[in-house]
Prior knowledge:
This protein is α+β, with helices and mostly antiparallel strands. The protein has helices at about 5-25, 30-35, 50-60, 85-95, 105-125, 135-145, 145-150, 155-175, 185-200, 205-220, 235-255, 255-275, 295-300, 375, 425-430, and strands at about 60-65, 70, 310-315, 315-320, 325-330, 350-355, 355-360, 385, 395, 400-405, 405-415, 420-425, 430-440, 445-455, 465-470, 475-480, 485-490, 495-500, 505-515, 520-530, 535-545. It is globular. The two termini are about 50 Å apart.
Amino acid sequence: MGVFEVLRFGLRRAGLGLADRTVTHALFSWTWSGADAGKFVPRLAEFRPADAQTVIEMMEGKYLLSGRLVETGGQSPFAVDTEADDWFEDLHGFGWLRHFSALTDPGQRAFARTLVLDWIARFGTFERDAWDVFITARRVLNWLKSFSLLAEGATAEQMRAIARSLSVQISSLKVRAAFVSDPLERLMVEIALAGAALSESEESRELAAHIERLGMLLEGGLDDDGLVKSRSPFAQIQILSEIIPVNQVLGQRHGTVSSGIARRIEAMHRALEKLVLGTREPVYANGCGQVPVELVLAIAAQSGVRATGSGLCGGYGILVDGPGKVVADSGQVPPVEFAADAHAGALSFEYACGSTLVAGNCGPAPGQLAESRNLFRHTSAHSAPTIEDISSAGIGRSGALQLRGAPPQITLEAQENAVEMRSGAYRDRYGLDIVRRLTLMGGGQTLVGQDRFMAAGRTARQQGMFSIRFHLAPGVVTERSSGEDLIRMIYRNGEAWSFLWEGASADIEDSVRHSAHFGLIKTRQIVLHGTARNEAEIAWVFTRQS
Length: 546
């Protein structure tokens, strides 16, 4: 990623941001904010799981969103002042509306409409944070998917208010779409506009244009394997969650023009399945943390794609043997416009055998620790090697991840069921590349690793100490006998595992892992350390005890 590329991106983003502020300024917003109430019908279907208990807690003033519980104390959740951006985004995105469909009590179901009308009363006119384009796109889609619920028992005046608010928000997206610099946000906007066009009572004249743009944005936002170019499993899940209902209606009503979009969505399903472990959770990589298993299963149920064997996908290496699965990250840095949330996870991996997560990464910083966001993007928050705890990639002023050294390499050795990755991140400073080889064997119950330091580039200007971290699953109990190069681990389900190594010293330290419910959960990590020098080799093994 060159300096001029980063500078060009920064200037372009600044220019588009200025244009967006112009069209949303009070002097100009009248051109789109005066939209009349449109006529919508409930065509978009919700497939994500619903939880009635969530609604009961909300009616008690307890809102658990993005791993953060906020108690409103009897006031509207939209009146709560919070610094938790993720919580705010989830609240104003209205994805939680689906939970009301699990209820049968008319009064409880009507509470959904009460919250929507309350939002309209407080935020019906433009407010920059609540009308962020990504949040607005999600809100439009979620209101449309819950349109039958909102109309149930509503007065004509209430439905006019909801329809008019929808129309204004849709108009704002149409105007602001051209000024969105983030390609995945732009994709979400187009999904919302296509969904809105499909939900109009009379077929929209703009539908064909939206379908065409949607196809172009998918092509530009996905790599050849069907993975979003940000390389984030969470972004993959977000896009699939919203585009699947739109694609279903497209297939039913406009099958001949939707086939290209359907093929790309199927490729997205295949890519996501490769990045989901036996725990049915996606790997914690590039901003992805804990995602409800029920959501992952619901997305999988919308496709005929089933688990595949070992392979490569979007810079990740996947090893499968029986119930065991490893997903390793080469450290490929996304293009600058996709790199705002990317992590420096070069040579990191997550390993699960069946439902047991053995080792993995810390995941993203929870919303309440936004100031620590870049700390969780650092390589040390991953099960990966570093030299002097220097991250394998940098973070620029724009917040985008930036490549250090030569581009990473990754190869699959199918006959050995092994993946080999090479990082050049430390070449300039230490004259060394790090090569990691992972081999999954024994029916998935043994993972063998080799980390080698190899001379590369110029003669080393300085020598450093290496650290190789293995962040263990929460709840693990570690035991180590004095003088032994062996650590025993007992996991929550009672499974016993061993970790053996040679070529380094080892310590057991504290660590954390992202949680959707608690923000972070304390756990433990094994840290191997020693002197980084040419041809140094560290071997290690995770194996399940019979």
